[in-house]
Amino acid sequence: MKCVLVGNYGVGNIGDEALREYFLSAFPEISWTVVSARPETAHEVPRLPLGIRSLFAPWLRTVKAIRHADALVFGGGSLFTDIESVWACVIWRSYAALAAWYRVPVILAFQGAGPWKTALGLKLAKKTYQEAAFVSVRDAESLARLQLFGLTKPAVLTSDPAFAFFGSHPRNPIGKRLVIIPRTNSNPAFLEKVGEKLEENFTDVRILLMQPSQAERRVGERFRLLAGDKAEIVPLVSVSQFLHEVSAASEVISERYHGALAALAMGVPVEIVPQGEGDKLQALQAAVNHSQDSVQLFRDKVSVGENALKQALQGFC
User: Is the pLDDT of residue 57 over 80?
Assistant: First the structure.
């Protein structure tokens, strides 16, 4: 079976790359073609031309891959949300529209749906979810939003699949180490929480940059100055490096979703700091607070999502 895997891959975000690795490892029976911002292998194709640079990429390979696929799979993440930019909904809608043109089934798997702050973002997301052949979402808040869309088939409630992937990595704490995971747009609330946490007696501090752009490096430097000589900035270049760093922590404070999720999966104490009302970090925080055994609950929900997705894919063979 041939499927095209679509997500925010190839942009240097470790969380998204972990999702990509999950799909490739959990579904080896699928012949995957991965849409990537930076294709590096024969099984990867560039993004559709929605910008000046992408016009010069061999994007006709992407069109051909979608045309001849058995299904197009949006693989994890919060793709259809305009919380940062409505352009995200435009980008991802273009793949669903092309698949619909070629009558290729669209699957939205392990998604974080919304929130939306613009009418256009909501409209594009609603149309895509209504047309989808199969939908699964990673949290109850996303499910509640989709129930307002009137889907012909009910969405499956699961959890983020990277949780199972992260949980297979053993924990190996090194002393009393604090790991800080900021964002490029880290807010004052996170800075304040980190300051409070640094009042505790940690032997060393690691500041993980999950998408180490110049802007994120500048943010990392702010936290390094706050923490003093015992702090080190660590630009992440691979999923394995990320898992090694989190597993070595005695505590984690994170403003990134997959940073918090990795800590939870490995049993590392973590403080989750949402960016705003209704965002994915707040949903993750709520899921943890509402369950005494959140680790097992997340694992069970991932299994539900995996089995449901496998059954859906088998239906397209």
Answer: no
- Which of 36-45, 187-196, 252-261, 280-289 is predicted least confidently? 280-289
Q: What is the C-alpha separation between 15 and 301, in angstroms, rounded?
A: 19
pTM of the full predicted structure?
Answer: 0.86
pLDDT band at 153; cut points 50, 70, 90: confident
Q: Is the pLDDT of residue 278 over 80?
A: no
Q: How far apart are CA 258 and CA 143, in angstroms?
A: 20
* 13 and 147 assigned to the same domain: yes
Buried b (16+ CB within 10 A) or exposed e, 291-309: eeebeeebbebbeebbebb
Is 86 within a domain?
yes
Residue ranges of alpha helices (H) inside 175-231 are: 188-197, 214-227
Domain carrying residue 135: 2-157
Length of the chain: 317
